[in-house]
Amino acid sequence: MNPLLIFRHAVSEGPGYLGDLLKSYDIPYRIAAIDQGDAVPDSLEGIAGLVFMGGPMSVNDPLPWITQELDLIRSARTHELPVLGHCLGGQLIAKALGGTITKNPVKEIGWLPVERYDNPDADDWLAGLPLSFEAFHWHGETFSLPQGAVPILKNQWCKHQAFVIGNMLAMQCHIEMTAEMVDIWTQENTHELANPMDTVQSREQMLEDITAKIEDLQATAKIIYEHWFNLLKR
């Protein structure tokens, strides 16, 4: 099959567990390292699907590559190519399809619960998962739902944690995490952790019982990712 194209927007925000899972399933992929100056392709030729990772920037920033990625997502929608987005990546999907990106009522940083919406799409995409589970978060903005999108995850601080539209999945939360990524992010972004609160955890809180938390998250992620993998043409 053709490879997936995974867009990385920051060195420490790569595919993580998603990359491990793709290798175990022998699904080829290549990285477009936007953080290293890689170009955004203007064609989908030879690409099986698009994956957009997170990043510290805002989708509303006037960066040329953001406009180019938005255009590529719209093209993927037209050509019915599967697309997957994490945090910034989810916001890119939302904006590309007509949603808006605004400040969330609070920042969410750390291990916080999400819960399933009561609708058939949520039941389909999240089959085998509990109605509520813990995910990792690191965001201060959120997306609205584009026309035709169906929300599948929410929590009390952010009503749109994930939505689906056709073969596209956009997530505000992070399910791709590894223990190493949590460790690096909390070292790199200490300025955001200076005043812990209900929705912003300290580095120590995020690293507590990290092995068990990552095992649980990756078991959850495996189910969600496998559903998306099944949409790929092989």
Number of DSSP strands? Answer: 9
Largest sheet: 9 strands, mixed
Uncertain spans, ≥5 residues at pLDDT below 50? none
From the spread of the alpha carbons, the general shape counts as globular
Adjacency order of strands in the biggest sheet: 2-1-3-4-9-8-7-5-6
How many alpha or pi helices?
7
Structural class determined from secondary elements: alpha/beta
Order of helices and strands: EHEEHEHEHEEEEHHH
Give helix % range.
25-40%
Distance between the termini: 5 Å
What is the beta-strand fraction? 25-35%
- The oligomeric state of the chains shown is single chain
Mean pLDDT: 97
Notes on the protein architecture:
With 234 residues, the protein is an alpha/beta fold. 31% of the residues lie in helices and 25% in strands. The protein has seven helices and nine strands; from the N terminus they run E-H-E-E-H-E-H-E-H-E-E-E-E-H-H-H. It has helices at residues 17-24, 64-78, 88-96, 120-125, 179-188, 203-207, 210-229, and strands at residues 4-8, 29-33, 49-52, 83-86, 101-116, 132-143, 150-154, 162-165, 168-171. Helix 2 packs across helix 3. The radius of gyration is 16 Å and the shape is globular. The mean pLDDT is 97.
